[in-house]
Amino acid sequence: MLPLLVVHGGAGHIPSDRVQDSVLGVCAAVRAGYSFLTAGGSSVDAVVEAVANMEDNPRFNAGRGSVLTARGDVEMDALVMDGRDLSSGAVSAVKNIANPVQLARLVMDKTSHACLTAGGAAEFARQMGVQEVSTESLITDYSRARWKKNLDPGAKPVECQMGKMGTVGAVAVDAEGNIACATSTGGMLNKMEGRVGDTPCIGSGGYADNSVGAVSTTGHGEAIMKVVLARLILFHMEQVPALRMDQALITFQTQLTEEAHVYYTSDFCYMCVNQLLASVKPNNSSISVIINTKFTVTMQAETKTRDTTLCKWSQTFVEGGHYLVNIKISGVHSEPSCDHILQKAPHSVYLPLLVAALLLLSLSLVFAAAPYIYRRRDTSKFIRTICCRSPRYSLDNNEPPLDSEKPKSTRLQSLDTFRGFSLTIMVFVNYGGGGYWFFQHAPWNGLTVGDLVMPWFVFIIGTSVVLAISSMQRRGVGRWQLIRKVTWRTVVLLLLGFCFLNYSPRDGPLSWSWLRVPGVLQRLGFTYLVLSLLQIFWGLIPVPLRTKPFQDLTLYWPQWLIIVLLETVWLCLTFLLPVPNCPTGYLGAGGIGDNGLHPNCTGGAAGLIDRWMFGDNMYRYPTCKEMYQTTQPFDPEGVLGTINSVLMGFLGMQAGKIIIFYKGSNVAILGRFLAWAVLLMRGASRWNRGVT
User: Which residue did the predictor score with more confidence, 377 or 605?
Assistant: First the structure.
């Protein structure tokens, strides 16, 4: 990754005659420390070198240039900390040391202690071969003049602090991503002898942790120590909301001399207008943003002064990953480019699915092997002995059972299996689908597993209606009795939808304003009613003894006529109904889709009809709202959507008729299913080409 070094020359007021030299001193410290980073050195090397450079500069309150104590002496503090393992070293109240920060580095590297002070630190310095310097070499004329001024009985403490530079420090990140900090100071002007401030205190004068960041403080030491300021800052950085499901962090950094703007659009957003993601200030500035990882996104970086895009790329970000995009210019005459760096590896988001798949596979193998294990003579005897001790199953009783069981009515196991599978997936999808995008509904265009659940279930309703009503007909149940049963079930579904699933009493327990009239159960209830009536009035036809080609179609021509009329109504309303301020036949999501030309046309004619019939009593947060930034309410369970549900259910009814007509001939049933599958797939492909 790109190394980074930040230094500070201390808080405080800088007299105008010292500003230029102070700025030059900070720049020199940056160059000295950064040279270590570019040469492959560690972040600890960089911060120690940068701070030592400022200790040698008399313009700063550290090393040579330190302020004096009340007795006119120099006592200095310093701290170094390595973010890799939280190791640290510090010295306090040291004298006659030109570079206290280097001595603090030795404490960290050569001892098991964290801090040495005064005489103990001096003795350790002699053991390490650190050369002592005279006190006079550390005192500047400027420091001595200010010290004498402060000794004047009429001196004001606030005025005496004017012109004093504070503690110096540096933080760095090396190419390996390791973080370090270093801080050094001469303390407070005219302080008491032996006074130790915040600088050598870990968590006050500085702190570094690879997992969070690094801090080097400057200011009033006593106030800093009260709150352990450095660690407190990192604590608040840790409190930044962690990345949630389907989120990744992207940091944009620019070396350009002008502001760069990064725009994005999701590849699942059809013809959407580019949206501003981040604006990056010039001259090595950076900004971090959180982005959704559900879909592939296309990004592009631009500036106001350039007519062309700086860089453009498409990428699928992965949940939990930290990414860095560096917008730079390699040479004087080079064009800008973007470097992509992975700073933190993303999560293994598909591992739970793999575990679930292996678990289901294991259970399937167990159930498949169970009958073979049970058939083994010894195993079956053991099971009957343990579980079945009645005389009927006694091992000594060789007589047949006294009561013969009546044959049970068989169920269509394939239908039960498909129904159970669909219900399981439906519940999983309704509870978030584990956060996986393919178990959720597509924003508008596209098709996911979540979008298939409803058609599957409606198809099963149609098949079940044919089989159930045909069975009741054979048992002698009358037509009006069937109508009462169907009507009652429909009313129950509608009431459940109104009163439980789609009711939100925000304005009181009996409020109407937040009632959602169209809903999932309402759609299923109306579909069930129409399909059942079709079967009751025009489907109770005895199956001929001899099957003829296409008789499962021709015998039920009234049903087909009604379905064709319903679909004709749907087509006419969808493609011919004028929608105010929208193109006729519009099928888009509106919002920022379709290049933002039709922002208030969500759903076209379907949305218009539902808003006219139900007003605000419909779904206000459709799936397309987040991605397409729509403002109009839209309900996929609306009037025109229910007509299509009837069509899907009717196809399920056709499957039920095939099962009845060709009962006992699995080859014929599968052949008819295959023919219908080919026909529907060809029709769907032609429809898609026509709409496109």
Answer: 605
CA 48/CA 404 separation, integer angstroms: 93
Phi, psi of 329 (to 5 degrees): -125, 120
Q: Of 474, 426, 488, 491, whose CA–CA distance to 452 is shortest?
A: 426
CA distance 655 to 675: 12
Read out DSSP for 139-174? --HHHHHHHHHHHSTT--HHHHHTT----EEEEEE-
Q: What is the CA radius of gyration of the chain?
A: 39
Binding residues: 195-198, 218-221
Residue 250 pLDDT level (bands cut at 50, 70, 90)? very high
Rounded Cα gap, residues 274 and 266, in angstroms: 9
Q: Is 451 helix (H, G, I), strand (E, B) or coil?
A: helix
Q: Which of 38, 69, 167, 448 is catalytic?
A: 167
Residues 633 and 651: their CA atoms lie apart, in Å, by 30
Residue corresponding to tokens 């009515």: 409
For 404-556, list the strands marked E by DSSP: none
Cα–Cα dist 348/427, whole Å = 24
Give, in degrees to the nearest 5, the angle at Cα 394 between 393 and 396. 140
Cα 252 to Cα 348: distance, rounded to the nearest angstrom: 24
Please, are residues 77 and 93 in contact by the beta-carbon 8 Å criterion? yes
pLDDT at residue 41 in the model: 92
d(CA 201, CA 90): 8
Enclosing H/E stretch for 263? strand 260-266
Quote the tokens at residue 213: 């960041």
In the DSSP assignment, the letter for residue 549 is T
Q: Token digits for 571? A: 């087509």
Task: Give residue 213's region: left, alpha or beta (phi > 0; psi -120 to 50).
Answer: left
Total residue count of the chain as it appears in this document: 692
What is the mean predicted confidence (pLDDT) over 567-587?
A: 94
| CA separation for the pair 162, 551 (Å, rounded) | 102
- What confidence score (pLDDT) does residue 381 get? 59
d(CA 208, CA 228): 13
pLDDT in the model for residue 551: 74
Q: In 3-state terms, what secondary structure has residue 329?
A: strand
Say if CB 146 and CB 164 are below 8 A apart: yes
User: Both ends of the chain: CA-CA distance in Å?
Assistant: 45
Rounded to whole angstroms, how far apart are CA atoms 407 and 290? Answer: 63
Burial classification of residue 528, based on how many CB atoms lie within 10 Å of its CB (0-12 exposed, 13-18 middle, 19 or more buried): buried
Q: Binding site for substrate: which residues?
A: 195-198, 218-221
The candidate with the shortest Cα–Cα distance to 201, out of 189, 216, 213, is 216
Q: Say which residue the tokens 């800093």 belong to.
A: 224
**Can you tell me the distance from the alpha carbon of 67 to that of 69, in angstroms, rounded to the nearest whole number?**
7
Phi, psi of 569 (to 5 degrees): -60, -45
For residue 29, give both structure tokens. Answer: 């410290």
Q: What percent of the chain has pLDDT over 70?
A: 87
**167 in catalytic set:** yes
Helix count and strand count (H, E) for the chain: 21, 16
Ramachandran area for residue 476 (φ above 0: left; ψ -120 to 50: alpha; else beta): left
The 10 Å Cβ neighbour count of residue 50 is 31
Cβ neighbours of residue 506 closer than 8 Å, sequence gap 6 or more: 513, 514
367 or 183, which is more confident:
183
The H or E element that residue 447 is part of is none
Number of C-beta neighbours around residue 170 at 10 A: 31
Burial (CB < 10 A; 0-12, 13-18, 19+), residue 6, is middle
